[in-house]
Design goal:
CATH topology of the largest domain: Rossmann fold
Number of strands: 11
Largest sheet: 7 strands, mixed
CATH class of the largest domain: Alpha Beta
Strand order of the largest sheet: 3-2-1-4-5-11-10
CATH architecture of the largest domain: 3-Layer(aba) Sandwich
Number of domains: 2
Length: 265
């Protein structure tokens, strides 16, 4: 999981619009108490090893869209890369600024759809299945437009989405107890229902003295759907990978769809 959740438009969800009409991220990404929990249950993992390896050894300019608490941004900066981290959640960005290399990173509070800069990047990433919170085609296309606009001619984009052919209802629920400096928190995730290509679920956080429930919605697009939207945005799939070890995507068995994307020729 990664920040950037959720740009919800379903009135049944618990997100709320800001004064510009955009829909704000879920409670578990704007609540400062829950932002502190994020790094405990979304710490370093094999997917982050994969994304870190994409930058190589030579200094690169890297844009992390939906950077969350900046775990990857911090790792890139530690390897002397020039890093920009973008996220709509001020609570998440504040955690990122406090990381060891936080002062070396440019932090920008923005949605991917509206991010603008004069910079061009060697590598643009969107991790933690953040792509799936783009619930409407207009948001997908605007995000791809952001990537295309800020990509160097020789650069590439990497992001992942879950394979919609997997039985996610069976795979989704979990429960874990996390130890915080201030005590324990019981976190659990609960599948609620599928509506066409959308999954609706809840995250629940039980602290000793208070509880939070955060409603979320994710979209499950097929590789063909994503390819069509990339093509419309001036991008093309260079590789489609099915796991973090680099195995080619198999629609029958791969849980992940990891896209390596370049500017269209």
């Amino acid at each position: 999981m990664q920040s950037w959740k959720n740009l919800q438009t379903n009135p049944q969800t618990r997100s709320c619009p800001d004064f510009s009409g955009k829909v704000m991220p879920d409670t578990h990404y704007v609540n400062s108490k829950l932002a502190e929990v994020y790094d405990l249950d979304s710490g370093w993992s094999i997917d982050r090893d994969f994304y870190l390896s994409l930058a190589g050894q030579q200094r690169q300019s890297i844009l992390d869209l939906g950077c969350g608490t900046g775990l990857l941004c911090n790792a890139y900066a530690a390897n002397n890369h020039d890093v920009t981290g973008v996220d709509p959640s001020p609570a998440m960005l504040e955690v990122g600024r406090r990381k060891p290399h936080g002062k070396e990173i440019e932090w920008v509070q923005s949605f991917a759809q509206t991010y603008q800069s004069d910079k061009l990047f060697d590598l643009i990433i969107m991790t933690g299945h953040a792509f799936q919170v783009l619930l409407e085609d207009v948001d997908v296309l605007k995000t791809f437009s952001t990537m295309r606009k800020h990509l160097k001619p020789s650069g590439f984009v990497a992001f992942e989405s879950r394979n919609p052919l997997i039985d996610w209802e069976k795979e989704w629920n979990y429960s874990v107890v996390l130890e915080l400096p201030t005590g324990t928190v019981h976190e659990s995730r609960h599948f609620l229902r599928m509506e066409n290509d959308r999954m609706i679920f809840e995250l629940r956080y039980d602290f000793p003295n208070e509880n939070f429930i955060s409603a979320s919605e994710l979209r499950f697009l097929s590789p063909k759907d994503i390819d069509e939207r990339l093509t419309a945005s001036g991008l093309r799939i260079d590789k489609l990978i099915g796991d973090w070890g680099g195995t080619p995507f198999d629609e029958r068995s791969s849980q992940e769809m990891i896209f390596i994307v370049r500017a269209a020729l």
